[in-house]
Amino acid sequence: MSFTVSRNTKINALLLLVVVALAVLPLALGLGDHKEEPFTGADAEAETAITELQPDYEPWFSPLYEPPSGEIESALFALQAALGAGVLAYYFGVRRGRRQGEARALARAADLDEGGDGGGAAPVSSVPSAGSKDA
Amino acid sequence: MHIAEGYLPPVHAAAWGVAAAPFVVHGVRALTREVRSNPESTLLLGASGAFTFVLSALKLPSVTGSCSHPTGTGLGAILFRPPIMAVLGTITLLFQALLLAHGGLTTLGANAFSMAIVGPWAGYGTYLLVRRLGAPLMVAVFFGAFVADLSTYCVTSVQLALAFPDQGSGVMGALAKFGGIFAVTQIPLAVSEGLLTVLVMRLLTQSSKGELSRLGVLTRSATKRPEEATAR
What domain range is B34 assigned to? Predict the structure, then answer.
């Protein structure tokens, strides 16, 4: 039994691998080591830069709701990613199901065409007489 | 990584809001028109918005030793044109501003201008240009998504530099500073976003040929025309 992976799948896996490598390399190479707090958000760094440029600047508005802890915040970020991933997966699932359904309907129609003169090859395919409706 | 709540002076915040509003209103109109005339595209519209949702939730480490996240706006801009991304991008920003204290309501205009307007347009323009130069679809998709991502953070840097010019070196000095924080951090992330967008587009070309030819993404491959000619 040979286990073959299609060229398409290989390319897709390679794309993912490069993305993972791009995310892991800065960590693995310790590119944040020169900082007091490595790998903070760029937006927090921008806030620091603003206070350096204009020490007297005070943010004049604060968020209406702030996640009470880092845990809650990461939960909400995970929720955002999960919602997005769920919708994407639903989309591709629906598409795949539709294609499989079409392929099956085509195969059945072809089966019926052959079964008409040669006799039923598979009992399942010869059963639905309703199939003649769309033939 | 968007401009945090309250971190743009009121005049700047208002100005960017005024600048962004017409694009978003126009986008809402384009979106309703698209859904009304092609109800079957709703699902793909949802998927494009979902892609933005996922990517802008992924905070990734970068070569500068800090973290930022991609935007995911290139895909939708290529598929449905930029006006529609003005809406989907703004919805994502609103979600993050209201629930995550990431970005903000007072900076929503500025952040929408960079992520939901300039990013998609720059990305879409790049995509068209690369295609017109005769490059394969996926090469154009990569550069479109890459530019959509990177240009977003270049605009963010400009917005902050305009609001907080350096005492000595002025706007340009501040731009170098903010550019170093946002734009440089973003380069590897923009590459990642380009690759992920290519991945999703590859999956779409396998699963949604008809949809992509209707949207004009696949017209050049000429798979659609002979088929249609025989069907009609």
Answer: 10-59+66-217
